[in-house]
């Protein structure tokens, strides 16, 4: 994967952070983080537990207000914006714990994602059947991610791996410019990991992906660029081979084999 | 791209026969209820049934917020009682016809809802309940002091007038069917609201608010929308009550009234369509029974509250839908 | 004269404000202690305050227990009743949505108040000020009833003692740790359910203590609790329940604000605390002492 990245010119930066920092009542969780996320590239954020990866995610998506620094999305400064507004601009995230609407069916989950872009979210006087015109696009996504047999099953009744796939499907329904995936493979069986990795590679063809991931073989396999966090600061950055060869990274990861 | 389609679904879907049976059953129940409501004023004291209808609408409006949005308001008396004052004032002092007076109450409920909701929505969960309670208590004190409410006396002998200037509502049967019509319209609005694109987003927010935010929904504004709708319909119920009972007093804006509507919804079943109606019937009936005895209703109310919370959190209707019998009938338990 | 108000009236209302503030502080402190660990809004707090006053009243009438004895007995009795209710009923609701705890204690409050109203009627019963505390201090610029001075001092001491207990002692550290991570504390061999019961008893006892202190000032009435509890909720929203000291300080501040409103704009004195609450919510939704986010 990295070979292709080296020969092609660096694509456009869509999301960038400069000097990003977050303090929690005196304790610094994230400090001086600079990141550039490129179009059509998969960027991994790795690091030992407690390194601040999820906090960085929450800062980038505005679920947490940063103490310091600036965030730019598609040329617009989003540092002071609200999380839903950022999502409407095309920066959509997933969560560590699978984020689906458990009592809604797979189809309904996708409808909810599609309602707002289609301007069908605030009508309180129209019947539910007015949502049927979203079904075409919803079924496309359901089929594209292999969820067709479970279309009318409640999300709560799906297997863990399939919930993650559904979550990616609802995220894709927004046609985001930047996708932030928080440990998309966590807790998955071997088969599912492979499936999801393929899906991510697929969706990254025309959008930027930033993912937190512990499974380093997946990172090695599909990610173009890797940033290593340690104690809230960037320890190293580069393609997987460079980062893996870095002695500081090896020290930080003592015991966990790449 | 059938990547994972060879795996069977994790759980079997519910047998598909159930919804059909449920549809027939629902129709039968609806028909039965319609017959009962049309016959009721000829068998029972009409004012009593009209009072139940007002409170049933109030509880259904409250449940729109608690059951379908997950917000517990402890201040709904402000909308109910406030609207009662507004309607009573418009009918008595301004001499407006009943339908316009009712609209004044509805508009007042909506305005109060927007004002209180915009402040309360800034806090979540338990704080939300406390803030709504405090704000409605503030409104109570305001009502105590404002001249138009006539303080402790309230607004008495509110005229019912002529509907659209034609139908004399002093005729008990005419009044009853007017109240019944308003009640049914109110319920239809709630039904539509819950089963609408907007209602779908509310459901999603209740299930997973962070995910709804990450899908680009400004969740606070959706909640505020539900709050205002609930307040508006509570206002409709309060205004109607002022015309039925022909008075508006401090009782309707007091915090005990907010507690009562919580109880009605809890007894009947939070998040069910029928539950609040049943709950309202039980609570109003109980108050009616105890009205002549010295035994205070609050003791019973308090005990029923405790028992419901400890043992029947789904409420009568919710427990029934969950029971083997309810399932066999194909009733869908509340999500 | 201050802003055209006679100094006497001004100081008089300031004193009333301080007295009310003492009760707000004691009650919101108890609510904060209970909420901190149990995550329950104790709606029955007003009823427990009323119970405290009634225990004092009944103990004097039937058993001849004097005021000083009541100061000890009432919190113990009400605390014990609280512990019993927490152990048998309330504790079953912890795994559910926190709103159920609030609804349960709301029902409890209604049942207790309804019963007392049924038995004693809605009107208040007088409770004599203890002999040692009757009379006044003449400060030259104003007359200060000794009992009122005692209430202010006593509530301040109790508030600070509870604050010190929770912020400065080992027991308090355990309590705070249990708030953060109950299963971890449990694994250290600490009996967390017992801790929860004791905390609820402490909160209920504090409310009862406030009730005894209030008995000679206000009349002992079944309605005294529900009148004050909603105001205390507003106090708690303004202060934010994250901090014990925040609850105490906000209680006194809002009591004083209410007293001063009685001087300058009496019509608004009933609602001033709610107005302040609304303003705080608009400007600083987390409350004055609440944590951001």
From TrEMBL, chain A:
The keyword Protease does not apply. The keyword DNA repair does not apply. Keywords: ATP-binding, Nucleotide-binding, Transport. CDD domains: ABC_Mj1267_LivG_branched. Residues 15-256 form the ABC transporter domain. One of its GO terms (molecular function) is ATP binding. It comes from the Bacteria. Gene3D superfamilies: P-loop containing nucleotide triphosphate hydrolases. InterPro entries: AAA+_ATPase, ABC_AA/LPS_Transport, ABC_transporter-like_ATP-bd, BCA_ABC_TP_C, P-loop_NTPase. GO terms for cellular component: plasma membrane. PANTHER family: ABC TRANSPORTER ATP-BINDING PROTEIN, CONSERVED COMPONENT OF ABC TRANSPORTER FOR NATURAL AMINO ACIDS-RELATED. This is Amino acid/amide ABC transporter ATP-binding protein 1, HAAT family. It comes from Paracoccus solventivorans.
Automatic annotation (TrEMBL), chain B:
The chain crosses the membrane at residues 25-45, 52-80, 100-119, 126-148, 175-194, 261-284, 290-312. It comes from Paracoccus solventivorans. The lineage of its organism: Bacteria, Pseudomonadati, Pseudomonadota, Alphaproteobacteria, Rhodobacterales. InterPro entries: ABC_transp_permease, LivM-like. Pfam families: BPD_transp_2. Its main location: membrane. GO terms for molecular function: branched-chain amino acid transmembrane transporter activity. It comes from the Bacteria. It is found in: Cell membrane. Keywords: Cell membrane, Membrane, Transmembrane, Transmembrane helix. It is a multi-pass membrane protein. This is Amino acid/amide ABC transporter membrane protein 2, HAAT family. GO terms for cellular component: plasma membrane.
From TrEMBL, chain C:
It holds the Pfam family BPD_transp_2. Its main location: membrane. The keyword Transmembrane applies. Keywords: Amino-acid transport, Cell membrane, Membrane, Transmembrane, Transmembrane helix, Transport. The chain crosses the membrane at residues 23-41, 53-78, 98-120, 141-166, 194-218, 230-257, 263-283. InterPro entries: ABC_transp_permease, BCAA_transport_permease. It is a multi-pass membrane protein. GO terms for biological process: amino acid transport. It is found in: Cell membrane. GO terms for cellular component: plasma membrane. The keyword Cell membrane applies. Belongs to the binding-protein-dependent transport system permease family. LivHM subfamily. This is Amino acid/amide ABC transporter membrane protein 1, HAAT family.
